[in-house]
Amino acid sequence: MSLLDPHDDLRTWIIxxxxxxxxxxxxxxxxxxxxxxxxxPLVGFARGDDPLFQAYKEYVGPYHWTPxxxxxxxxxxxxxxxxxxxxxxxxxxHTDVTKAxxxxxxxxxxxxxxxxxxxxxxxxxxxxxxxxxALVEKGYRAVAPSLFPQWEMKESERYVYSSNWSERHAAYxxxxxxxxxxxxxxxxxxxxxxVGAVVAxxxxxxxxxxxxxxxxxxxxxxxxxxxKCMTRCPTDAITQTGNDKLKCIEYLSKTGAYVRDNYGFQGxxxxxxxxxxxxxxxxxxxxxxxSP
Length: 292
Description:
- The protein has 292 residues and is of the alpha+beta class.
- Helices cover 36% and strands 14% of the residues.
- The protein is built from nine helices and ten strands.
- The protein has one domain (6-287).
- It is globular and about 50 Å long.
């Protein structure tokens, strides 16, 4: 593809929209020093007709949206075809100081981590809206699935809980990372991240997936030699069979009182399995080629 291809120019523009917003004043932990919540984001793109999205639907349940389904919910009567859509995804990495703080903890989240979970995610919501608004202003229809009124978590026979749109799975489809034993997304900038996504009626080059399996970047699955996230979990929710979501959610709900009493704001968090592990800030060195 020529460097002058308008589709490639649009891709470059979208990346700039995301990165410029992350450089702005709203990217903050809202602490006394007004520190940044997130480092420079990673950005990836997936085709709206990527077979992975249909596979997710078949694997998770009929309620799980494909890009076409959420787009046509947002724009009823649209005659758009799946191949006219692009899924835009980004990964927001925690800052080094936030990760260093949380690495020292063994039971409750560090203050910066808890602030990232609350105020950093509030920024992520603003980023989703900003990307949608920027695309609309340029004449492209777009929707942020996780902000759509019908987005919801559901009880799942297979997964205990699952949602009708997963930004982490959209990021996997967009070439941004693979899943670890704890269920977190391991990216080029590690697992200590949050994710966002927008579906738009645009045509841009998709991001190649440099991996062939959904566990390619996890040392436990790829080499059978790491259990660090298991030992980091304060509630024994992570075992060799994966993450017990009920235990995890129950523990998270208990951290609210600690955050309130010790940090002085309403929040919660944990993230211990995302810090102090080999994949905290990178893909483990021996797995960088993406192949187990």
